[in-house]
Design a protein that fits this description.
The protein is mostly beta strands and about 220 residues long. The protein has one domain (about 5-219): Porin (Beta Barrel). The protein has one helix and ten strands. Strands 1-3-4-5-6-8-9-10 form an eight-stranded antiparallel β-barrel. A hairpin with a 2-residue loop joins β4 and β5 (about 90-110). The longest helix has 15 residues, at about 5-15. The two termini are about 35 Å apart.
């Protein structure tokens, strides 16, 4: 899929997400949270996950009591941390990639107690690369590092699947204000590398992978 088509899809998704002229019984809001992510694949060596953030907005299209579609747009960070042993010491070298991510989620309410709603959701997402940096060592003796910009070294777009659980808690009934607690997993389906730094690892996909927890406020 070329960048022109992905740009077009991204624009269509944004338009659909926040055009509510023909919607019924809908709510919108914003959310903020934290995530833990990793990049399976890539070069050999010990790796660990890295902590990040996410924040953005969403709109919920309620089709019936138990089913809705929820498009979202949020800023998030993903990446990994390489653990390198140098002269008997461990050096942690993080790679952080910032994305604007947009999932389109199908949400099913499986328990509704009035003021509490339990939901499961899932759907595809598309991410647009914003910026990113990785730390690389330039002095093996002192362990000093320099930051390398990742623009041009990772793909401009990523895509994958999102699924998780959401608890809605009613705050003010007559205005439909509520808070939500969201736990989800995102799995990237694309190799994000643009250049093959390690040819002998060409069969290993370097794709994004993250677990997220966020607190939302809808009205």
């Amino acid at each position: 899929m070329n960048n022109y088509r992905i740009n077009y899809i991204f624009l269509v998704l944004i338009t659909l997400a926040f055009s509510s002229a023909f919607s019924y019984s809908n709510t919108g809001g914003f959310k903020i949270g934290a995530n833990v992510s990793s990049l399976p694949g890539g070069e050999e060596g010990d790796q660990s996950s890295i902590r990040g953030i996410n924040c953005g907005i969403f709109y919920n299209y309620q089709f019936c009591r138990f089913f809705s579609i929820q498009p979202e747009i949020y800023f998030t960070s993903k990446g990994k941390e390489d653990i390198i042993l140098s002269l008997g010491a461990h050096n942690n070298q993080p790679t952080v990639i910032y994305y604007m991510e947009m999932p389109i989620l199908a949400k099913f309410t499986f328990l509704d107690h009035g003021s509490l709603k339990y939901n499961v959701f899932g759907g595809p997402y598309v991410s647009r690369f914003i910026t990113g940096v990785t730390s690389i060592p330039y002095d093996q003796i002192t362990g000093e590092e320099e930051e390398l910009k990742l623009r041009g070294k990772v793909q401009d777009y990523d895509y994958g699947l999102t699924f998780g659980l959401q608890l809605d808690i009613m705050v003010i009934d007559f205005r439909r204000w509520m808070v939500s607690v969201d736990i989800r997993r995102t799995i990237g389906l694309k190799n994000i590398d643009t250049e093959l730094t390690y040819p002998w690892l060409k069969d290993r996909r370097n794709s994004t992978n993250s677990a997220m927890v966020s607190l939302g406020y809808r009205f």
